[in-house]
TrEMBL record:
Residues holding ATP: 32, 35, 116, 159, 162, 165, 168
Cofactor dependency: Mg(2+)
Assembly behavior: Homodimer.
Organism the protein comes from: Ligilactobacillus murinus
Protein name: CCA-adding enzyme
HAMAP family registered for this protein in UniProt: CCA_bact_type3
Length: 403
């Protein structure tokens, strides 16, 4: 097969491939970007594979960085861009179900493609646009099939993460998992226990953001992979409930975690420990709690203070989830409430602590904070205009009441 129109991302890297070839070696584009090019999807990372050894790559190019030299990867700097060039390699050992004990550099493209996970990810693209397909990946792309390269059981024994990648691609690309590959996951799902949570998390989020989430989730549940993910083992029913949501189209990681926390009915404390177990960032954990604070009060007369305190990002996520979950409050109504807030942040209040100290001669302390909070709340609720004179007058009244 010939790729008719080589994407721009490849075009800019072509001179590098040609330079490697001029030095007498082979060089190809490989991996996900080749798959996505053939599918007509946008590409994100350009991976280059070569028969040249790392030292040979370093001799060809003037500016290189050893980004992963032990795995055969050298970064070549060109016109302010960095390109990762990786030597063809074979992997062996895999005693821990996740990493090869031994990596060996080889001169054969076929050997390199053979160690890749799925046939659709084992394609190479030559500079002239020819696709090199040694494991019928093109047929599988055509038939929308996810199939392990070689014997699936063996491949999942080598690296158990590949099972998660398989269900992720079923969702992301809306492809069916080939029966033997699916069977091998069912038989070996427990091996996922050996894999670092961070790596599982990446695949899990890509699954939830995919084109056919229901298909990915069904495979994730049917194969029992979920049992070996943090805090999922006893939550099959709740996960099934997610797969049944009619308009399940999530926009980002925050929406994914917030939906899970909501469906699992987690308390704020449980949210923290759940997300900690999944090793998400603290920022996501805080935002998820903000989203939940809105969802929990999703009646038709939402208190504007709730979305004021949740802030913009969480409000947007909540508005999307309200519609997905079909709660009484609509997403549009929530956004309307948020947009109508007179101020979105304390910093927008027409008066600050310094003003109170200077103009009213108040002393620093809890009383001052109390006054500011009251003013903030009244402005958010539209009970006071966000005007300095109005706020000062109100502050004076409040300070007298406090004394
Ligand atoms: P994405 O579009 O999400 O980046 P990808 O297939 O490009 O998907 P990467 O993690 O970028 O995924 O990996 C690049 C390539 O490396 C893959 O296409 C595949 O050929 C190979 N690969 C990645 N992970 C594995 C693995 N666990 N086992 C075997 N090969 C892998
Ligand atoms: Mg990639």
């Amino acid at each position: 097969m010939q790729v008719e129109k080589i994407p721009q991302e490849f075009m800019v890297a072509l001179p590098l491939l040609q330079q490697i070839r001029a030095a007498g070696f082979e060089a190809y584009f490989v991996g996900g970007s080749v798959r996505d090019t053939i599918l007509g999807l946008p590409i994100h990372d350009v991976d280059i594979a070569t028969s040249a050894y790392p030292a040979e790559i370093k001799a060809i190019f003037e500016r290189t960085v050893d980004t992963g030299i032990e795995h055969g990867t050298v970064m070549v700097l060109d016109h302010g861009e960095g390109y990762e060039i990786t030597t063809f390699r074979t992997e062996s050992g895999y005693q821990d179900f996740r990493r090869p004990d031994k990596v060996e550099f080889v001169r054969s493209l076929k050997e390199d493609l053979k160690r890749r996970d799925l046939t659709i990810n084992a394609l190479a693209l030559a500079p002239d646009g020819t696709v090199i397909d040694m494991f019928s990946g093109l047929d599988d792309l055509e038939n929308k099939t996810i199939r392990a390269v070689g014997d699936p059981t063996e491949r999942f024994f080598e690296d158990a993460l590949r099972m998660m990648r398989t269900v992720r691609f079923a969702s992301q690309l809306d492809f069916k998992i080939e029966p033997q590959t699916l069977q091998a996951i069912k038989a070996n799902a427990h091996l996922l226990e050996k894999i670092a949570v961070e790596r599982i998390q990446v695949e899990w989020i890509k699954l939830l953001l995919g084109k056919n989430v229901v298909q990915g989730l069904d495979a994730f549940l049917e194969t029992k992979l979920y049992k070996y993910c943090p805090q999922f083992a006893t939550r099959e029913q709740a996960l099934r409930k997610i797969a049944k949501l009619p308009q399940l189209k999530l926009a980002d990681e925050l929406e994914c975690w917030a939906l899970l926390a909501y469906v699992f009915e987690l308390t704020p404390k449980q949210v923290r420990s759940f997300l900690k177990a999944w090793k998400t960032s603290n920022e996501i954990s805080t935002e998820v709690q903000n989203v939940l604070s809105i969802l929990e009060q999703a009646t038709s007369d939402l208190d504007p203070l709730v979305c004021y305190h949740a802030k913009e990002r969480a409000t947007k996520a909540a508005s999307h989830l309200l519609d997905i979950l079909q709660l009484p409050l609509t997403g549009a109504k929530l956004l309307q409430t948020y947009t109508a807030l007179p101020i979105k942040d304390k910093a927008q209040l027409a008066l600050n602590g310094k003003d109170l100290l200077q103009t009213l001669g108040l002393k620093p302390g809890p009383g001052l904070g109390k006054i500011l909070n009251t003013l903030e709340q009244k402005v958010v609720l539209g009970e006071l205009a966000n005007d300095k004179t109005v706020l000062l007058a109100q502050a004076e009244k409040l300070s007298k009441e406090l004394n």
